[in-house]
Amino acid sequence: MAEALVGIVMGSDSDWPLVKKAAETLEKFGVGYETRVISAHRTPDLAIEYSRTAEERGLKVIIAAAGGAAHLGGVLAAATVLPVIGVPVAGGALNGLDALYATVQMPSGVPVATVAVGSAGPVNAALLAVQILGTADNELREKFRAHKQELREKVAAADERIHA
């Protein structure tokens, strides 16, 4: 696999069945990644250390997936200059609404880009990471341009089937 450019961090290994969609999406674009299970609440020192050293390890973007109180994205963003993309994970009594609120309610100065709750979230997080990386990588940007064309073609084919 290519050198890790994206860190994928999840608050619990129970998040992996959902979060692996981000890994699979990055693989389709040939983007290297690393995965970690780090809890903002149970291992805060590890979360800070991971984020603080991410840039020197060659990472360019961090994806943080967490449910419940979902402070992982914010904790990681607090300790790095790298872009952090938060993936609110559905579950618990509020079915992900608490994770969404925790992820989008960041204070001024500590941005966390936030994607959808549910199965689209990890895919969109990976796609956003590809777009960010593509600002400095023409080949990756062209792969993303081709991806967008494929999406347009799928919609056109669906439209044609409906009108046939």
Quick take:
With 164 residues, this protein is an alpha/beta fold. The protein has helices at 16-28, 44-54, 72-78, 97-104, 120-134, 138-163; strands at 4-10, 32-37, 61-67, 84-89, 113-114. It has a five-stranded parallel β-sheet with strand order 2-1-3-4-5, sandwiched between helices.
Write up what this structure looks like.
This protein is of the alpha/beta class and 164 residues long. The chain has a single domain (4-137), classed as Rossmann fold, CATH 3.40.50.1970. The protein contains six helices and five strands. It has helices spanning 16-28, 44-54, 72-78, 97-104, 120-134, 138-163, and strands at 4-10, 32-37, 61-67, 84-89, 113-114. A five-stranded parallel sheet has the order 2-1-3-4-5, sandwiched between helices. The chain starts with a strand and ends with a helix.
SSE blueprint and pairings:
Layout: E1 4-10, H1 16-28, E2 32-37, H2 44-54, E3 61-67, H3 72-78, E4 84-89, H4 97-104, E5 113-114, H5 120-134, H6 138-163
Parallel strand pairs: 1-2, 1-3, 3-4, 4-5
Helix pairs in contact: 1-5, 2-3, 5-6
**What are the low-pLDDT stretches, counting only 5+ consecutive residues below 50?**
none
Inertia-based shape: globular
CATH architecture: 3-Layer(aba) Sandwich
Strand order of the largest sheet: 2-1-3-4-5
**Fraction in beta strands:** 15-25%
